[in-house]
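Title: Comparing notes on inverse folding

I've been comparing how different people in this forum approach sequence design from structure. To keep things fair, I'm posting one structure and asking everyone to reply with a full sequence. Here's the target:
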């Protein structure tokens, strides 16, 4: 089996990334008034259809400040009645996004796929406060800056799965439509078999991912299989809801192997194997068995959020009219150590079995691995 990404020093690997500008370019959101929405006032339209974006008073502010146009003309009267077919545009003003890394390492690349070593703190896709400072933006800029006009006509690579903002490691991206479709089916197929015979036997499908994590407490058993469903609950600051351990959710399976127990630090270094994964699956599953990721600000014991009053939503609004930054932890908050270390993949075009490895952060190395890395560096 070819091993890719683990036979070069970090400094010799290809890296890319453009420093983020001070502010992004803002955003524009387009709508066309449907027959069912005709007759609504402009404030009724936005405050009901996009309640997760801003509270009522926030939308009033946006309208009064001239951020919304109807058929190309700025409208500041919130009681303006909308007609069928009217074209609405909400202009979100440019803002300074929170700090995020911009340099990304390439672990593997061919004509169809590219595997990146995503740094912790960098979001994969646009969402919330991060609309420009994402992996997707850097991939787009990388493609736009590549030499020939012919290359620039190609669509830029796109991620085919996600890693949490605080999670580092292997992020697989597709460079062609065919590769994207097949990789997406790999992930979907792995998820659909959870609980089936293939998972019971621990056979590999088309793709498998192995993570490293540092958890709180001492895990007693050397191997733990977690078969716990994951669902969604209402949660402040997360418009679509928060993923948690839930008997009414969708099935999810994680296999945990213990690598090192540190009694003095009351922590355990673990390896977690999943074939595809629900959102935040590893964080939820490890907390479900009583060992949340060390430093995880969101998930507590039981696979549930640490906060209790999760139904409370702050209706006050920020300077741009949107909701205030949540006071409760949200999924994008960092502080934990979780790393997508190894990915075993049947190539979407050639069917060749390849293994991609992202170097481990020092905090997630066993003492033996740390010594080996030092020895290799001294030799080099």
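Reply #1:
Here's my take.
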């Amino acid at each position: 089996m070819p091993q890719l990404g683990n036979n070069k020093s970090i400094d010799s690997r290809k890296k890319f990334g453009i420093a983020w500008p001070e502010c992004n370019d803002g955003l524009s959101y387009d709508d066309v008034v449907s027959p069912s929405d005709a007759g609504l006032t402009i404030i009724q339209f936005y405050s009901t259809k996009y309640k997760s974006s801003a509270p009522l008073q926030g939308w009033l502010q946006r309208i009064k400040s001239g951020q919304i146009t109807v058929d190309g003309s700025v409208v500041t009267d919130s009681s303006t009645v909308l007609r069928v077919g009217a074209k609405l545009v909400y202009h979100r003003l440019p803002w300074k996004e929170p700090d995020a890394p911009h340099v990304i390492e390439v672990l593997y690349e061919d004509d169809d796929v590219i595997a990146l070593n995503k740094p912790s703190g960098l979001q994969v896709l646009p969402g919330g406060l991060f609309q420009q400072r994402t992996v997707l933006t850097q991939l787009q800029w990388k493609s736009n800056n590549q030499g020939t006009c012919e290359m620039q006509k190609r669509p830029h690579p796109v991620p085919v799965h996600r890693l949490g903002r605080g999670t580092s490691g292997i992020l697989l991206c597709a460079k062609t439509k065919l590769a994207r479709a097949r990789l997406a089916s790999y992930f979907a197929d792995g998820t659909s078999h959870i609980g089936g015979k293939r998972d019971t036997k621990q056979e590999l499908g088309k793709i498998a991912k192995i993570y490293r994590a540092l958890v709180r407490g001492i895990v007693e058993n050397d191997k733990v299989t977690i078969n716990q469903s994951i669902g969604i609950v209402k949660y402040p600051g997360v418009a679509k809801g928060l993923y948690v351990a839930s008997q009414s959710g969708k099935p999810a399976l994680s296999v945990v192997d213990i690598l090192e127990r540190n009694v003095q630090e009351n922590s355990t270094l673990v390896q977690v194997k999943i074939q595809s994964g629900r959102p935040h699956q590893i964080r939820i599953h490890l907390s479900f068995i009583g060992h949340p990721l060390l430093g995880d600000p969101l998930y507590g014991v039981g696979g549930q959020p640490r906060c209790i009053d999760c139904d409370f939503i702050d209706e006050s609004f920020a300077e741009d009219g949107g909701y205030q930054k949540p006071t409760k932890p949200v999924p994008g908050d960092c502080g934990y150590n979780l790393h997508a270390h190894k990915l075993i993949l049947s190539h979407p075009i050639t069917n060749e079995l390849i293994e991609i490895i992202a170097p481990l952060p020092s905090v997630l190395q066993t003492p033996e691995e740390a010594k080996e890395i030092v020895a290799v560096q001294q030799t080099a």
